[in-house]
Amino acid sequence: MAKKEPTVIVVDTDSPEEISSLSEAALPFSYRSSSEVISVSSIGEIPPATPLRPNTAASLENYGLDVISVSSSEGNLPANRENIIYDVIHGVRTIEEICICCGKLEIHTQHPLFHGGICAPCTEQFLERFFLCDQDGYHGDCAICCRAESLIMCDDETCNRCICPSCLDTLIRPGAGKETEEKNIKWTCLLCVPWEKNGVLKRRTRWRAELKRFYDQESNHLWIYQPLGPWEQKPIHVLSLFDNITKELKNYGFLGKGMGNGRLKYLDDVTNVVRTQIEELGPFDFIFGSTPPVAKSYNHPSAWYFYQYYRILEYGRPPARSDKPFFWLFIDNLVLEEEERNTASRFFQMEGLLRYQQHDDVVQNAVHIWSNIPSVQSKYSVSPLYVDLCLLAKNIQKTRIFSQRPATLIKEFFVPLKEYFRTFS
Q1: Is the peptide bond before 283 cis (omega within 30 degrees of 0)?
Q2: Which of 191, 298, 397, 417 is at a distance of 20 to 30 A from 80, taking alpha carbons?
Q3: What is the set of domains in the chain, with CATH numbers?
Q4: What is the mean pLDDT of each run of 10 residues along the chain (425 residues)?
């Protein structure tokens, strides 16, 4: 009897147990002899096939061997993100076939800002993190992958976005990230420069409209207005109830002393304010409201602040079908009772977001926030806190160690408004 040629089984795992089980599953019974099986693992370490880099299976077939490729996971093997430029330039794959955030080939949809694919996990990451900002006034994540600890901030005065060095290396050219970091010069991101392509990174022509469509199609709990270009943005007009947030908005450039800058109207007691007065003062772009700090005395029952805010909010809203960006935000600084917070959630049609301030492992203060600003509703904004809030409020009132205004705890949530309203240096 002629001796059979050995059969090579190519698997993408280093686990002996998986190699054994996958080998058994892949071969007919007549081939299940250990002397006839050669297992090749760690295929994930081998670069993706290109015209200059044939894949492992093709190479083994050149030796006259029967090859059975077996994967321990569903879908295509992940592309090496470092090879995206090579593969796109040499026609191995189009940029639309690769997730430009991580390099995977299991594409869910297309990236909203740049030409290229995006996988399901990166889609979720992008939706939840794109509008998250830091208190320094910039986005907290890379505008491409919505990840990265190291970020390069755009120096355009109308932009507050960042790009990570890894994305520059992967999509523009190797070394571009480090070079940009080390150069002590102003740097402008690809969403702001006149040209639309650098390397294989190409900006979408109508990326703001694409971003709106992306959220509409992919998110079931985050809704956004379409961001506006600098030429479309107007100064913001703010109504601030029960707390004056002029300082916070000035810090981010929304308000200024010059003519034509943003405006803020502060009202402390609105008991006798009627709809016509709000209409005469408006129209408003942003209506803010807050309970007093829990350690300070206040002149009304706790629920008064919520009910009066909601009444004025209804007066100041634009018509239901208006596409004009309009934002609102209400904060409770541990003043509302639990039943009152539940009522607020029912009226606002969303759960309140809990944020707290901590020092040396001691929670000093906490607030609940309701808002239609996208970053407030992100899953990454939630701060799990296993503390009795009633006891915390009593401790603050007893010691009176905390008198900071509630708005100072959530000021980073004002930053996404830069996507819609003009700022001034």
Answers
A1: yes
A2: 191
A3: 7-70 (no CATH), 81-218 (no CATH), 237-419 (3.40.50.150)
A4: 47 49 43 42 41 40 42 44 87 94 94 96 95 91 90 91 93 90 86 90 95 95 93 96 94 82 93 95 96 76 94 93 92 89 94 75 76 89 60 60 71 94 88
